[in-house]
């Protein structure tokens, strides 16, 4: 169940005035393109929402009324195939937007992997602000260009790379997407399960587990826990990811 946070009026007004400027995810988000009156206007449109692990931000087929800016936690984005299989198309973290590039209905689902906080905006109001705020429109265009490049890389990953190359690429690239959660050098936080990694990379969970174990045996990785991997030999893992070994 979504939790909308409420506060006494005086305290709420003071904190809402500062909410965007003090948000830890702002530097990672398109919101960072705004300041002054535009930032206050964006803050006035936002509802703060919390989601427990497994709760849906959006569901495929529902009316696309809202967009979300994730401020903490991680989200899985996926589609269900006709036979019930799940294809995860991406993982989102603090600073990412979800739900904006859709038509009248959502064409995918997005669920919290772990506890998530987000700013929720009514889609129509947010689109109006985009039209009236050139800096926000420019930031969204830059983000869309980046996401297009990421989608092309994902197509290469699924279409041409071996299972080992896919997993090596995933482990090396993941920290750059989860910048709000800094880790020591070489450490990779994995909020998602092995099954979710498999669904994202187009593999079976058995293959993911087998490849991770092999990389550990080869001394390229250390499995610190179910949710943390340490890359022991980043150059060799990168060469493996690029098919140079």
Which bin fits the share of residues in helices?
Answer: 40-55%
C-alpha end-to-end distance: 48 Å
Largest beta sheet: what is the strand line-up? 1-2-9-4-7
Counting helices, strands and paired strands, the structural category is alpha+beta
Instruction: Give the H and E element order.
Output: EHHEEEEEEEEHHHEHHEEH
What is the 3D form? globular
Just name the CATH architecture of the largest domain.
Sandwich
Please state roughly what percent of the residues sit in beta strands, choosing from under 5%, 5-15%, 15-25%, 25-35%, 35-45% or over 45%.
Answer: 15-25%
Counted beta strands: 12
Question: How many distinct domains?
Answer: 2
CATH level 3 topology of the largest domain: Jelly Rolls
Can you tell me the CATH superfamily of the largest domain?
A: Jelly Rolls
Give the biggest sheet.
Answer: 5 strands, antiparallel
């Amino acid at each position: 169940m979504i939790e909308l946070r409420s506060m006494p009026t005086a305290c709420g007004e003071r904190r809402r005035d500062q909410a965007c400027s003090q948000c830890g995810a702002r530097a990672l988000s398109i919101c960072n393109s705004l300041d002054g009156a535009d930032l206050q206007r964006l803050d006035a449109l936002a509802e703060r929402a919390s989601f427990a692990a497994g709760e849906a931000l959006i569901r495929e087929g529902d009316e696309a009324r809202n967009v979300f800016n994730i401020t903490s936690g991680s989200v899985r984005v996926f589609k269900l195939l006709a036979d019930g299989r799940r294809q995860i198309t991406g993982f989102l973290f603090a600073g990412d937007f979800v739900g904006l590039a859709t038509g009248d209905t959502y064409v995918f689902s997005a669920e919290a992997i772990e506890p998530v906080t987000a700013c929720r905006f009514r889609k129509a109001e947010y689109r109006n602000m985009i039209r009236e705020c050139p800096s926000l429109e420019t930031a969204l265009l830059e983000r869309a260009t980046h996401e297009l490049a990421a989608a092309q890389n994902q197509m290469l990953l699924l279409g041409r790379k071996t299972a080992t190359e896919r997993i090596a690429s995933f482990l090396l690239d993941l920290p750059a997407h989860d910048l709000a959660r800094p880790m020591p050098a070489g450490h990779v936080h994995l909020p998602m399960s092995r099954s979710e990694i498999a669904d994202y990379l187009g593999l079976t969970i058995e293959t993911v587990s087998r490849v991770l174990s092999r990389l550990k045996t080869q001394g390229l990785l250390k499995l610190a826990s179910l949710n943390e991997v340490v890359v022991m030999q980043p150059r060799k893992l990168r060469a493996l990811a690029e098919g140079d070994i």
